[in-house]
What does this fold into?
Amino acid sequence: MALALLMLKSASAAVLVLHHVRQKQLLKNSLLFINYLTGLSFNRQPRFFTFLIFFLFFSFAASAENDGLNKIIIETEKLPLIESLSPSRANTLLKDYNSIVESNSKLISAGREPEYMFFQYKNTERFTFQALSARTCITQETLATLNQIENAQDDIKEKTLILPVVSGLFIPLEKGINSIEVLLQENYSTQTLTKKAIYYKINGKDYLFLCGQRFSPTERAYFLDSALRLPLDSNSFWVSSEFGKRKNPFSGELKNHNGIDLAAEEGTPVYAIKDGAVYAAIENDPEFGNYIILSHDQGKMTSVYAHLSKIRPERYQYVKKGEVIGYVGQTGMATGPHLHFEIRQGGKAEDPRSRLNIEN
It folds into this structure.
């Protein structure tokens, strides 16, 4: 009897907590998780499941209240997993997801508060980013900012993604790791936020969520721009050595040349080909002299700039596409002033001509 009373008291307390957006979010996600495990639709969920979740989950919701940072904590491994985005009678979880997204759209149109919930999905069906947005009826900027996707052309095949049920922008409160995050932080740093702003901690990272917000024209241009710029101005260099096997100019030995050499006057500015973080900034290396390695797309791609006369950024600094990162020199093993330039995808060297518009 004592246990039953305790369960009823906890259930009543949890009902009151539903008036708070954060605890309503947490409770809904738990109910969905149980719904997924049992395979039951909402209207067939047994009553004892509701009481059980109220009882077990109230203490967890209360612990989020005591964090002191006024945010909703989301742990992705506890989110319900949508196994397929292909509609079928058996795919009840996708039906639930679509129903919630549609209901939220109507609530927002009517000026009412939507339900805030999250699911997860592993893209084994190999959807493109644009197709994923179309299938979920969630805007591209919402999916991109929540899942740290920098560019609309990024490969998301086999990637596990978090799927929200409301569109908007997720702006990280910590230092941005890609061009979109940095740009959003700059654009919103001086804006006055409303009381309706929601704060999340997702996998340990803090976000501000702005419901219904879209990319500005500048932000969208950054997101859609997948082209790489040249590391030197087009009229300032000529290709002195191509990618592939060649004789080493010092030893005469036939070796792989993992980049291209761009001959230019000493002191010519060298530019970042894409937004990224400085993975390495090395001086006086015996072979490469002064050189920089930039990490792009969370390490999926790197670019190397060697034989520099001077390095501008420091290690771990974030640089933007087109920013001057150094100057052409002849440090290390160099027979004259030039830039040795490499592109590596997944750690494997690629011919930069395949990625850059080099005419000479």
Q: What stands out?
A: Confidence is low (pLDDT under 50) at residues 1-69. Helices lie at 2-17, 21-38, 47-65, 92-109, 129-136, 140-146, 179-188, 217-224. The domain at 238-354 is CATH 2.70.70.10 (Glucose Permease (Domain IIA)). The two ends are 85 Å apart (CA to CA).
